[in-house]
Amino acid sequence: MNLFIVMYKEIVDNLRDRQTVFYALLFGPVLLPLLIGGSLVASFKQMTIDYDAVTTLSVVNAEKAPTLMEFLYSNNIDTIAAPDDVEKSVRSGESLVVLEISDDYGEALRNGSPAPLTLHVNNADKDSAKATRRINAVLNVYEQTLSSLRLQHRGIDPTTFDTLNIIEHDVSNEGANGQLLASILPFLFIMSMVMGGFYLAIDTTAGERERQSLEPLLSLPLSRTSVVMGKYAATVCFVLLSSALTALSIYILFRIFPLEIMGGQVRFDGPSVARAFFLVSPLILLISAMLISVSAITRSTKQAQTYLGVLMVIPMAPFFLLQYLNIRSSLTSMSLPMLSQYQLLENTVLGDAIPWLHVALSVAGTLVATAILLVLAARLYQREKLLD
Questions:
Q1: Are the C-beta atoms of residues 307 and 298 closer than 8 Å to each other?
Q2: 254, 240, 131: which is closest to 196 by C-alpha?
Q3: How many CB atoms lie within 10 A of CB 125?
Q4: How does strand 98-101 pair with strand 117-120?
Q5: What is the CATH number of domain 55-161?
Q6: CA distance 346 to 174
Q7: Bigger pLDDT: 326 or 106?
Q8: How far apart are CA 381 and CA 353, in angstroms?
């Protein structure tokens, strides 16, 4: 009963703090997925080229290459006359790309020499760079076609020079884009948990010590273990709510942005997000215990913010570790908190099978680490220096 009284007090006190409410219920669960997920989707969209979309290309001396113009038209590229000042037009963004055909283009083709073409681009402009990649791809196909025709005209089979026929068979369902996107899900979940309980954990000890409200609380006929567990339970409530809102935000985000533009087969439907929330839920207990333990060590709000700010490196470490190292799911990795949740959530989004033994090891390892941190927090609250 005493535990719930302390928990209720902490929840009510922190709901009055606008900063706590903002970071716990708005920034972590809503703005963070929108900023990271939205920017990732935008970057994938920028890198993806839609060859079926009809676009225009400014051309200088288009009349000197009628066959090339027909080939561009057959690939959904309409040609228009280039402006007088080509460089100024491209630099200002009026023309994304300008193709200039030299005066000796036709003569070079007739002589069997490389025909000069110039692409005026602005690589500092993302739209210009994207348009350039499409034009280059189409021109490369045209070049290969001309090379084959030249060889056939001379009675040479074009395949004579093809010494190898290499076929790359990607057995993954998602590809590199899907793998990167899948790693974002656990990152968003775990970071929202930290943000959800960050300011409440600071306020539970360091904040109350500065407001001189901690000593009256500890003078009540309550065991210090009950005080710790009450503060811990309040932190768990905030972290849990933040995680649930994050799951909802992720689901809505990927209903708005179609996954097809990323070229992956990742799963962000309702069942997948719910399964991911279930798998990551043990971290709610661990992160709350971690926040409470660190806040009990600090003597001021400023010091608590510094310590907990450094502590945020721990949830981010598995994300960057998995980006650079190929760590496969194993019994060892599944027993490590946070790393196991990252791997389980990646497998969930990618649609891979997850052995129940891996889930059990992940939960067990996380609960053991949580128990250790709670024992540490309880001992820290037993110290007389806590009020100094």
A1: yes
A2: 240
A3: 17
A4: antiparallel
A5: 3.40.1710.10
A6: 11
A7: 106
A8: 43
Task: Give per-residue burial for 14-46: e unless 16+ CB within 10 Å, then b.
Answer: beeeeebbebbbebbbbebbeeebeebbeebee
Instruction: Write the secondary structure of the chain as one string of H (helix), E (strand) and C (coil).
Output: CHHHHHHHHHHHHHHCCHHHHHHHHHHHHHHHHHHHHHHHHHHHHHHCCCCCCCEEEEEECHHHCHHHHHHHHHCCEEEEECCCCHHHHHHHCCCCCEEEECCCHHHHHHCCCCCCEEEECCCCCHHHHHHHHHHHHHHHHHHHHHHHHHHHHCCCCHHHHCCCCCCCCCCCCCHHHHHHHHHHHHHHHHHHHHHHHHHHHHHHHHHHHHHCCHHHHHCCCCCHHHHHHHHHHHHHHHHHHHHHHHHHHHHHHHHHCCHHHHCCCCCCCHHHHHHHHHHHCHHHHHHHHHHHHHHHHCCCHHHHHHHHHHHCHHHHHHHHHHHHCCCCCCHHHHCCCCHHHHHHHHHHHHCCCCCHHHHHHHHHHHHHHHHHHHHHHHHHHHCHHHHC
* Nearest to 242, CA basis, from 194, 181, 291: 194
Task: State the number of CA atoms in the 13 A half-sphere of 23 facing the CB.
Answer: 15
CB of 345 closer than 8 Å to CB of 220: no
Band the pLDDT of 176: cuts 50, 70, 90.
Answer: very low
State the pTM of this model: 0.67
Residue 110: how many other CB atoms lie within 10 Å: 9
Task: Report pLDDT digits (tens) over 336-370.
Answer: 888 888 888 888 877 777 889 999 999 999 999 99
Pick from 190, 182, 187, 185: nearest CA to 352: 182
Contact between residue 188 and residue 352 where contact means Cβ atoms under 8 Å apart: no
Query: How many Å apart are CA 241 and CA 253, to the nearest integer?
Result: 18
The pLDDT-based confidence of 260 (bands split at 50, 70, 90) is: low
Assigned token pair, 235: 């932190």
- Tens digit of pLDDT for each residue in 40-55? 666 666 666 777 788 8
Phi and psi of 274, rounded to 5°? -65, -40
Can you give the residue ranges of every domain in the chain? Answer: 2-45+174-387, 55-161
